[in-house]
Structure formats: structure tokens, C-alpha cells
Amino acid sequence: MRRRASLVLLAVAVFCAALAPLLRWYAYPRLAKIPPNQYQEMVLEAKDATLVDYATLQPRKVDKVTIVQTLKGNVEASKEIEASAGKDVVVWDTLTYIMDPDGKMVSQIPERYIFDAHSQDPVHATGEAVDGDPVKREGIEFKWPFFTEPRDYLYFDAQTRTSSPIHYVGPRKFKGMDVYYFEQTVPWTKVGLPKKMPIDAIDPATFEQTTGTSLWYTTKAMFWVDPVTGAPVNAEQEIQQEMRGGTIAGGAPDGKLTVFAGHVKIREDYSDYTVDLVKSNRTMVLGLHTYAPIGLAAGGLALFGLALWLEARGRRPRQEEPFSA
């Protein structure tokens, strides 16, 4: 009976030992990916900001500017691109909607972001765009790769349509989580006006040509990233926009008219929700990548030892009983 039990335990031990590396190096790389149907909404605020009054074209201090970002996975578009790309592809259609303190639109900027579901590397395909303008992204945007490394990455800035390094600064704590902190500074750059604006008097397509005024932008972007999932648990930006020169800004001090200046942060309730979501996803990723393979390997080793112990006991000769007349 002991011999039969030891053989069963040995078989289970071999199965666990074989399954552990299979799960880590075969299943994990295929199963750890961004789902194509993801939907997410985020609300950010810039309190005590400066915002131009488009009625008077004068900057004014406001209590709050609200930015609503929506992200929706386009499943049909991802399937079409996957057919030609030959790999798992995610297509995110995003919208950044900016409102003044009265809830009126300041601008809205749509994006289509196409990337590899596993590595988060950009995938260049028809439809990749910012505010209707075709772009060819280099580097990451929105999300870091799974198991983010403590190093610099190339990060895409949608306003300037350019990529530049985002620097790893060091480890941080954020709401009890161990995260990596990254910073990117985009220097003053001339950019185009958003195609959707609150007044019809300004035509973004011919704005600079007809007024001689150009829009300039700079930002310091800060991200607190969970290194396991690669998802930011917090994001902040110090943004400045100015109109310079021409008929609109020519009369302003130094020929510069502030369009927007503020420190943008995630609203607290959305920050708490994001942390809870990332913690949940982190557990699933670690379960597949680390916990399950190590548990299977350790369990297989323990069962192997138990099987050997039972086998040794089964082979031990029985002690002769004393003879009695």
C-alpha cells in the first residue's frame, strides 16, 4: 500500500515540477496582456489655475479646470490590425475633454493609440492619430510594460506629437504601494491649436497664418508606476500654454498671452479607484508570473521528498519476532 502511495506522490511531484516552468515561461508570456475591450474614465483637476477668457482674450484666475479622460478599447479595429500584424494588438480610442469652472468646453482632443498587447510597444497602422492628425508614435504612452524596469523610457507627448526620454527618478511609496517614479520635461514647443474650441471666431486651420500668433506649450509630467503591471497609479502635470506675437498676443507683456497654467492632478476618488484596480491586477499578474510557478515547484519538491520517505519505509526489513515454544 505504501509503495502504491509513493508512486502516486511521485507522479504528482513530476507533474508539478513540469508545470511550474511551463506556466512561467510558456503560459505567462501569452496570457499577460492588455484586454482589447478595456474601458476607463478618469477625472483630473487643476485648482487655482490660469485660463484665458476666449470672449475677451484675457487670462484670468479660476478656481478649477476639469479634465475628463475616457479610454475605450476598439475591438473591431484591433481585430482588423491583428490580421495583418500577426500579433495581439490593442486599439484605444481616447478623448481628453477640458472644461472651465462653469462646465463649458475649453477644448477636446481625441486620440487613437495602437500598441502590442503584451509589450506595449507601438504598432503603426492606419488610424494612428492625435486630434485627427496622423502620427507615428515612438516609445510608450499611457502605460509602461509589465515588470517595468528602473530605467529611462521613451515617452510620447500628444501635444507636441513627439517622443523624448522620461527619466526614472527612484522608488517611491504611494498609498501603501511600492512604485517607481518617473519625470519628463517637455521644453517650450510651438504646437497647433485644438480643432475643437469654444468659439467659432478662431479657425485652428488658419489661426497662425491669419493672426500671426502661435501657440506654445511646455510641461513637466510626473508618473508613479506600479512596476509589476506597468500601470500608473498616479499622474500629475505642470502645464503652461501661451499665445505669442501677432494680432492676439502682440499687445500682451513680452508679447505672450497665457492660455493655461496649472498643476493637473487626478481627483482623489478616481485616484483611490485606480489604486484598488491596480492592486487587483497586480495580484493576478504575480500569481501567474511568480506565485503559482514557485508554489508548484515547492509543492513538487515536497511531494517528491514524501514519496521517497514512503518508499524507504516500505523497503525497510521487518524485525523478526522472538520465537516462543
Mind explaining what this structure looks like?
This protein is an alpha+beta fold and 325 residues long. A twelve-stranded antiparallel beta sheet has the order 6-5-4-3-2-1-12-11-10-9-8-7.
Span of the ends, CA to CA? 33 Å
What share of residues is helical? 25-40%
Question: What value does the average pLDDT take?
Answer: 88
Low-confidence stretches: none
Largest sheet: 12 strands, antiparallel
- Cα shape: elongated
Count of DSSP E strands?
Answer: 12
Radius of gyration: 29 Å
| Count, helices | 5
Beta fraction = 35-45%
Question: Summed up, what is this model?
Answer:
The chain is an alpha+beta fold.
Features:
alpha+beta; 30% helix; 12-stranded antiparallel beta sheet; elongated; 325 residues; 39% strand; single chain
Write the layout of secondary structure elements.
Layout: H1 2-31, E1 39-53, E2 58-73, H2 75-85, E3 89-99, E4 105-116, E5 129-130, E6 133-134, E7 153-157, E8 162-174, E9 177-191, H3 207-211, E10 214-225, E11 232-244, H4 246-249, E12 256-266, H5 268-315
Helix pairs in contact: 1-5
